[in-house]
Automatic annotation (TrEMBL):
It comes from the Bacteria. PROSITE patterns: HTH_ARAC_FAMILY_2. It holds the Pfam family HTH_18. This is HTH araC/xylS-type domain-containing protein. The keyword Transcription applies. Residues 192-290 form the HTH araC/xylS-type domain. Keywords: DNA-binding, Transcription, Transcription regulation. One of its GO terms (molecular function) is DNA-binding transcription factor activity. PANTHER family: ARAC-FAMILY TRANSCRIPTIONAL REGULATOR, TRANSCRIPTIONAL REGULATORY PROTEIN.
Length: 292
């Protein structure tokens, strides 16, 4: 039974035949010998891609779009993604990095949560104008040069370049009034811990009490806090995670509805079907027909 894989940064290096050792970052250039593959997957790493020429077909979550150069693509670890080539050959540069690497020496461990474009499926791809493209190109050039020179301070230089990329991309979004402000001081550590726990356990655990217990608070306190900070209760967060995973799995024609139900640990297919219809108004088979 085919599950959605989560690739470590080392596994990604092997796929792209890149020698990165045990580093928590690596850089990739894709051109005439690109190694795209259609398998839906998650990653343990963040990535920022600079599409310099051509175009790609990107499915991130449930949003599928053709991304044309010049553009940047930002993907966080929890995002289920599929990236394939079109008839127009893409030329891309990609920097992969873990949160542990980027957050080294930072006191604000919630830093990456400030930037919606890593997780919001409507914000992953951003078309660049000429000025913006030049800015992104300069930063990727600095990354290439530091790596080529085996610079003594390579990790620090790349970390600085990644931060600059993040700030520039955030500014691009804000100029278009796309990204909603999310000040670091309003982010609760409990929210961060809940989201991390949810993405690990949602396919096995659907009880608010389970997550509240792991976080050492009452279910009511957890739901009240999430409702205040995100507009959604803990139960709604859990249901949305399951429905999103269900939809992604149902788009895989190799999986039967029964197998999708089993992967998500429902007691049987009928219980899964009832849950899915309650939250989408469609049966799993009806959704599959409309999605494919």
């Amino acid at each position: 039974m085919k599950k959605i894989s989560t690739y470590s940064i080392q596994h990604q290096q092997k796929i792209f035949n890149v020698s990165g050792g045990n580093k928590d970052y690596f850089f990739l250039e894709l051109g005439s010998h690109s190694l795209f593959y259609p398998e839906p997957r998650r990653s343990e790493a963040y990535s920022i891609s600079f599409l310099k020429e051509g175009e790609i077909l990107l499915q991130a979550g449930l949003v599928t779009q053709v991304v044309k150069a010049p553009a940047v693509i930002t993907l966080g670890p929890t995002v289920v993604r599929t990236i394939t080539e079109t008839d127009i050959q893409p030329v891309m540069e990609i920097i992969f990095f873990t949160d542990d690497y980027l957050l080294a020496n930072r006191t604000n461990v919630f830093y990456l949560m400030e930037f919606d474009f890593f997780e919001d499926e409507d914000l992953h791809a951003f078309a660049l104008n000429k000025t913006q493209s030049k800015k992104i190109n300069r930063l990727f050039k600095m990354i290439r040069e530091a790596l080529a020179a085996h610079h003594l301070h390579e990790p620090e230089i790349l970390r600085s370049c990644i931060n600059l990329l993040i700030y520039e991309i955030n500014a691009f979004h804000k100029l278009q009034d796309i990204v909603k402000p999310s000040p670091a001081e309003t982010i609760s550590p409990l929210l961060v811990n809940f989201k991390q726990l949810l993405y690990k356990e949602f396919s096995r655990e659907r009880s608010v009490a389970f997550y509240a217990g792991k976080l050492n608070i009452t279910p009511k306190h957890l739901s009240d806090l999430l409702k205040k900070q995100t507009g959604k209760t803990a139960g709604e967060w859990i249901d949305e995670a399951i429905i999103l995973e269900s939809k992604v799995l149902l788009q895989n024609k190799e999986l039967s509805v029964s197998e999708v139900s089993e992967q998500l640990n429902f007691s049987d297919q009928s219980v899964f079907g009832k849950f899915f219809r309650t939250h989408t108004t469609l049966t799993p088979l009806q959704y599959r027909k409309t999605a494919l």
